[in-house]
Write a structure and sequence with these properties.
The protein is mainly β. It has three helices and 28 strands.
Length: about 350
């Protein structure tokens, strides 16, 4: 039977975690084949498949518009484009410019940088924050920088070690830290995951340090099956597979425990932290307020199959956004999950509250 792209199929999943029952709805979408990211506001769902941006109605999930073209000219963006929402507009950042569109996809303007910005920037207040690389004392870092309204770099404000380092004449590859520097922008503040512990540092739009969030956490030991998953990823997925036998297989190493924070999202005036803890095939989210006060811990039906692992790392391993295929908005978890049997993508929407 033919599957209509915008038919909403409600599936009640009796998913119980810490006393909560979560309902999940599933929406089949057939317009794209290789989505790069998902973004949600109060009226729309935005899905990117470079260079196209798809705009769906959040009410009935019908496709309202698609736009975007690849190139260096006006209204065009290149392969490093990143979508975000700021001050009621869609913002698409490229390697050397930032383009503004209305939420309906109509072009407004663009700002072009004098030099190439390494990775897509995000607006914060009347400025921008973005990533680049930096080397100091033979150590390579991922760094976060503040840029002014003309995309001129003002200062470096945060850095973390790149997951591959030169050591003793060779290279060492930290398998767990492949996602690189993680940060989120919300309410003119930028939130950074720091190190392997449950630490998040907060800065303002000028790059001034504001405060640190710190929590105790349960250490999750890295098992041999976990290690095998990472080996399978590196030896089968582009671009790492060509380096696997010659470099990564010999130089990869694993700490004893997973980091406290796997991924995090700031939305709805809350911080949602995905940990490595699981219960009955559900994943733990630690929910904090913006100052770091613990609100609750919940276990959600979160897709962390091997396919999700490979896909999320392939798309955003050391690029702009470590969580390509999920987001949170208005107390709901939105996930893009590939249905391989039907050869389509599905939007899974779970009620967190």
């Amino acid at each position: 039977m033919k599957i209509f792209a915008f038919t909403l199929v409600f599936l009640l999943l009796l998913v119980v975690g810490k006393g909560f029952v979560f309902s999940t709805s599933v929406v089949p979408l057939t317009d794209f084949f290789n989505p790069g990211s998902i973004t949600v506001d109060d009226r729309h769902v935005y899905i990117t498949e470079f260079p196209t941006i798809y705009i769906y109605s959040l009410q009935d999930f019908k496709l309202k518009k698609k736009f975007g073209s690849q190139g260096e000219g006006p209204r065009e963006f290149n392969r490093f484009a990143l979508l975000s929402i700021h001050d009621g507009n869609l913002v698409v950042s490229d390697r050397n410019k930032v383009l503004y569109f209305t939420k309906d996809g109509d072009y407004i303007k663009e700002i072009k940088a004098r030099s190439i910005m390494h990775w897509g920037v995000r607006p914060i207040g009347n400025r921008f924050v973005g990533k680049s690389k930096f080397r100091e004392d033979k150590i390579e870092f991922d760094t976060a920088n503040i840029y002014d309204e003309n995309l001129e770099k003002i200062k470096k404000i945060f850095m973390t070690k790149f997951f591959i380092q030169m050591e003793g004449g060779g290279k060492k590859c930290d398998a767990i830290e492949i996602r690189g520097l993680q940060f989120q922008v919300f309410n003119d503040k930028v939130f950074f995951k720091r190190g392997k512990h449950f630490i998040i540092d907060v800065y303002d739009q000028s790059g001034n340090f504001l405060y640190t969030i710190h929590h105790e956490y349960e250490k999750i030991k890295i098992s041999e099956p976990d290690k095998q998953r990472y080996h399978d990823y590196f030896k089968t997925v582009h671009p790492w597979k060509r380096f696997y036998e010659s470099l990564i297989k010999k130089e990869i190493y694993f700490p004893d425990f997973f980091p406290a924070i796997q991924l995090f999202i700031v939305a709805d005036k809350k911080i949602y932290v995905l940990t490595y803890k699981k219960e009955k095939e559900k994943s733990e989210f630690v929910i904090l307020d913006l100052k770091g006060k613990l609100l609750k811990r919940v276990f959600l039906p979160f897709n962390q199959s091997d396919e999700w692992f490979h896909y999320s790392l392939t798309k955003y391993a050391s690029h702009f956004n470590p969580h390509a295929t999920f987001t949170i908005k208005n107390g709901k978890l939105y996930q893009l999950i590939e249905n391989e049997d039907k050869e389509i993508w599905e939007l899974h929407i779970s009620d967190i509250n």
